Amino acid sequence: MKKVKKTDQPLRSHKGTIYPQPRDFVGITFAYEQRAVSVDHLQVYLARYSKRQTAQVGQITPSAVSQVIDRWKQLRWVFTAKPFASPQWVWPSKEGMQALDLQGTASAPAVGDFPRYHAATHIRFALEEQYPDTQWISERALRLQSNNKYADDDRSFIPDAVHWRKDGEEEKSYAIRVDVDILSHEEIANFLERMLDNYDFIEYYATARTLHVVKGGMGIMDLDEEDEGRITIRKVEDVGSYKLIG
Fold it and tell me: Who has greater pLDDT, 212 or 86?
């Protein structure tokens, strides 16, 4: 699969020692969890850790996020790229992962993965807003929990995230899947079968273009009423009037 060309290598500082700030650690960890993060989403996430009231509610300014990214580059903690008509993207370098003791391999994302990463992060924000004080376990963390049993490009066994939320007094697990590309009915059905075996519920987010295919994949399964009720299929664009990138 084609990899993104690194358009700018992290820069060494020639003006003395650069000291990381507390929100650098949460920002890098966020980019690590999502594998790569767009600058517009980084603005929203870092606003949660801003000591001052942000000029625009819910996000820091473009100049503020640029300063943060410049510091990360001076620390050699990230790579950046602008693969198409979309916001700039950031992902951790090997040095950044080592500095924060993050496990796994630092590698450039595939070009085709950026739209899915962007949609998945949008879904994460929407769910965290709707269900405060809940736990989001990223796909990357799930792979580490499985001792990297599955290849990075094998999505048939691993959801994009697991979202734990309360159902009455109990916490329930929701397998989150986000697809912007068309899969076969068989691929979708196999994934849903595995998720039903491992999680309480499934929330499958598809695009306007792929929604009918996902429903078709579910349609070929022999589901009883209970299992059918555990699966929810939603259109990504309906979540906060989302617009796909790419």
Answer: 212
Task: For residue 19, report the phi and psi dihedrals to the nearest 5 degrees.
Answer: -105, 125
pTM of the model: 0.88
What pLDDT does 53 receive? 59
Q: What is the pLDDT of residues 9-22, one digit of tens each?
A: 444 444 567 888 88
Question: What are the b/e assignments for 124-143, b being 16+ CB within 10 Å?
Answer: bbebbeeeeeeebbbbbbbb
Q: What tens digit of pLDDT does each residue of 93-106 get? A: 999 999 999 998 89
Q: Which CATH architecture has domain 115-238?
A: 3-Layer(aba) Sandwich (3.40)
CA separation, residue 203 to residues 15, 115, 128, 135, 137 (Å): 49, 18, 14, 15, 14
| Average model confidence (pLDDT) across the chain | 89
Q: Please give the order of strands across the beta sheet that includes 135-138.
A: 135-138, 161-167, 170-179, 201-206, 231-235
Residue 80: band (very low, low, confident or very high) from pLDDT cuts 50, 70, 90: very high
Q: Please state the domain extents for the chain.
A: 22-109, 115-238
CATH of 22-109, picked from 3.30.70.2570, 1.10.10.10, 1.10.940.10, 3.30.930.10, is 1.10.10.10
Q: Which residue has the higher pLDDT, 39 or 6?
A: 39
Picking from 88, 111, 3, 85, the residue whose alpha carbon sits closest to that of residue 37 is 88
β-strand partners of 3: 110
Q: What is the DSSP string of 159-210?
A: -SEEEEEEETTEEEEEEEEEE-S---HHHHHHHHHHHHHH-SEEEEEE-TTT
